[in-house]
Amino acid sequence: MSPFPPAGVAAVYPAQWQGLWDWQGLSISYVSSGGGSPDLDDQGPGQRTAATTAQPALFIHGFGACKEHWRHNLAELGGSRPCYALDLVGFGASSKPPSRLDGEPEDGLALRYGIDLWATQVATFAREVIGTPVQLVGNSIGGVVALAAAMQLEREVSQVILIDCAQRSLDDRRLGEQPPLARIGRPLLKQLVRQRWLTARLFRWVARASVVRRILTVAYPSGDGVNDALVDLLLTPAKSPGAVESFRGFINLFQDRLAPDMLAELSIPVRLLWGEADPWEPVDEARRWERTFSSVRELRVLKGLGHCPHDEDPRSVNAVLEAWLAKADHH
Predict the structure, then answer these.
(1) Would the pLDDT of 183 be above 90?
(2) Among 242, 318, 239, CA closest to 59
(3) 165 vs 128: CA distance, rounded Å
(4) How many CB atoms lie within 10 A of CB 199?
(5) What mean pLDDT comes out for the span 266-291?
(6) Whole-structure pTM value
């Protein structure tokens, strides 16, 4: 059976862009485009000719999304450099193993879903498939993954670009910021979301076209780009076997990596691109990161855009990304 999404989603990318990579026995779906070099197509994985001077970029999607979420970006940005996007394990057309939470027995099949798992996937993909140095671009939780992958890759990453990076307000270390009732109810919440019967019901409720469309109208405040094709693009992977397991793993991440901790440690350039109207990740926090961390070199705020500006207004975002990605080519 083909690992790629059925017709409608698979058609987002040309067949020649699509690839599969075996990672720890798991099937990882990815796409690659462009290169800015006529002999790129003759290169093997991880190889690069002298003519290919533009550093590759790897795009990392957010929670509930997939590599197709970058469809409006890879086609244009691939004109000047090799561009890649992959499905994180548990999402898109990649394998979706069962989840294993703290205290649950190891059975050799289940995975501990979390930032470090996905970061290791990204770092290994960069080394084995793309070759380094590489630039990482992440949206939402993909931004946190990009930062964690950069810490693993160290000098093999030339820069990280965060697009509305997830701030993970539900992490236990940020519990003091929550309202009193939320703090009191946290132990009960943590017990409930471990239960498969509950997470399965919640997932089935979320994974409906009407609900996804409502969420998108909040995430994309301008309304641009919200259509049946986008809803189908996000829903198709959610209907595949195992999709509920990565959902269960993710909503149980109460103690995992936070972006500020990694920004404090990184020395490579980090650039922030933010939708001013993001309903979930306040731009004021991005401004604080810019003031606080020396690794943050630039912050660009996009007026009127929300949580996924790369899809809501790809033309504006691509112009910024093109300029920022080019900065690494000269170092």
Answers:
(1) no
(2) 318
(3) 26
(4) 21
(5) 96
(6) 0.89
